[in-house]
Amino acid sequence: MPGRKKGLTIFLLILPFLVFLFSLYIGTTPISPSLLFKTLLSPLVSSWKASLPESVYDIVFAIRLPRLLLALAVGAALSVSGAALQALFKNPLVNEYILGISSGAAFGAALSFVVLGSRVPPQILAFVFAVLAVGLVLLIARRSDSPIVSILLTGVIVSAFFSALLSLVEYFASPYSLQALFFWLMGNLWKAGWTDLAISLPIIGAGVAVLVLMRWRFNVLSMSDEEARSLGVRIRREKLIVLATATLITAAATAVAGIIGWIGLIVPHLVRMIVGVDNRRVLPLSAALGATVLLIADDIARSLASFEVPVGIFTSIIGIPLFIILLRRAAKVWR
Amino acid sequence: MSLLVRDLAFRYRDFELRIPDLALESAGLTAIVGPNGAGKTTFLKCLGGLLPVPRGAVRLDGRDLAALNEPERARLLAFVPQEHSASFNYTVLDFVLMGRTAYLPLFAPPSAEDVRIAEEALVFVGCAAFAARPHFQLSSGERRLILIARALAQRTGVLILDEPTTFLDPRHETEVMEIARKLAVEERKTVLMTLHNLDMAVRYADTMVFMKQGGLVAHGRPGEILTEELLARVYDIPMRLLEFEGRTFILR
Lengths: 335, 252
Fold this sequence. Notes:
Number of domains of chain B: 1
Largest interface: A-B, 35 and 37 residues
Order of helices and strands of chain B: EEEHEEHEHHHEHEHEEHHEE
Shape of chain A: globular
Oligomer: heterodimer
CATH topology of chain A: ABC transporter involved in vitamin B12 uptake, BtuC
CATH topology of chain B: Rossmann fold
Largest sheet of chain B: 6 strands, mixed
Order of helices and strands of chain A: HHHHHHHHHHHHHHH
Low-confidence stretches of chain A: none
Structural class of chain A: mainly alpha
Strand order of the largest sheet of chain B: 6-7-8-3-9-10
Number of helices of chain A: 15
Mean pLDDT of chain A: 87
CATH superfamily of chain A: ABC transporter involved in vitamin B12 uptake, BtuC
Distance between the termini of chain B: 36 Å
Shape of chain B: globular
CATH architecture of chain B: 3-Layer(aba) Sandwich
Low-confidence stretches of chain B: none
């Protein structure tokens, strides 16, 4: 690996931590760097804790820290599953929602808002229906001569089906639950608390670890199924591992953060343009860059105006033009 | 490594492949020839484990091919496809490294030893200089050599090549055949390939297998079985054999 590439790789790997620290500093309440430093270390140094204003402690530990951790996890999850699915489907234009996860989650959340009201967090049904949608796709696509084409097509069909169900629920929903639902659908991290993290962080952490550990395998999995099998891949088993893991982490991320589009498509793509297509680098760097990008997008979302703008809108508004620019330079990396 | 075929039958829609009995010699090059649609590629894919074979029909050194799982099979037998279309532009070395898959557990990236084996394979096919090049930039002749290198990185006793010389210019065609020959003679591998160029088959193969309509017509040493009558029977057009400077050529 040439020196420049190696330097970039290391830089990209530590970038999320730098941005994480910087993001702790950003927010509507100004907290000076030295105060922030003291607050962060106060659980370790008991004498510091007494001298801190309680509001600062709460802002850092109850609001900013969980939110940033969630941004890290969601960004990494969406990007890594995007990169993994692109290799598995041998198509760089596949995204992490291709298997119907987003529409399944949206329908689940809508159902939760409308039927269960605000007492029950929408995350639970969103997760259940996201997994259900992918399960349905795999079940329908199983009996087919060309599994790859049929999984993608079935994904489109199942997505359309859940979108129709979503419209049906929306039609009967009260204006109040509609508002809550729309805010959720736009994708945002503002409600993030430690309870969200306690459920989604372990799922995402474990799933991202599995996919990153498998990183080299994705080179082989991106060959045709027949070729991969002749090279010694147990194709059905390994495909199932990847699909299940990618689904689980995307569903976990979507359930807590709503639908945050384009990250899973653009981040792996950017990584490939920077360090090449070898998945040994693409998978871990997608996790790092995905976490960084969502952190920055969320920083912008919460500091741009006096009110909160859903981050999902940002990732799409920035992501789509960026993608068009990237697409023009893409031939170097894939076809 | 010996490859034995007995009562191999494979049916796909209205096509039927039937190989009653065939033994491939160790350390030899076998060329399967015959008209389009004779079932050559189907036969190769059955031997390569890409199509299902009945239990006991194919034996590798006495082991039943149908009873092996993918990694076990890929450590005994390598399959070189005719063409390769990839979506991602891996470097040549990364591409050849994929030949090490069968030796690596799910979570293990290739080791320095795996890299060394891949580089050795590249040297063998004469492409060591390409290691860092993106493989989209290769010509089709170079790509064919890289596919062979990837199969060599599998370190198998049996090497199966599907029409390795089709669409190649005479120089690359000769290069591929010389490499196949060297693998059989020097590395003592069992090399099996389908060919359309009969002159090449006669010149390089130890054994020729003539196929037609899913069945075997004849097999044996080219010098012993090759006749104008056999060629006419297999290809349905008249052909002549010509001796020139000690070599046999086929005219049509």
